[in-house]
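hey
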């Protein structure tokens, strides 16, 4: 694993945890900035933040959330 990949994975985990802690909008803005910074030079690394944005914005309906409980912490 390259250093850049390790840093991207670390940032991804931190953004998911930030969103899970209730700071979803802030986490989304930062994920979008990370994507924009990487999209031209490292599109494969940038793509990870597409998944991060989906994680942050795809919230299950309330009935499902109530049935399964809170979203597990990002790994």
């Amino acid at each position: 694993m390259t250093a850049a990949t390790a840093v991207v994975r670390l940032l991804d985990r931190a953004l998911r945890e930030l969103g899970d802690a209730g700071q979803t909008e802030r986490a989304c803005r930062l994920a979008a900035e990370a994507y924009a910074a990487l999209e031209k030079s490292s599109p494969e690394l940038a793509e990870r933040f597409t998944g991060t944005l989906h994680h942050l914005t795809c919230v299950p309906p309330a009935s499902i959330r109530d049935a399964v409980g809170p979203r597990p912490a990002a790994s």
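The radius of gyration is 13 Å. The longest helix spans residues 3-20.
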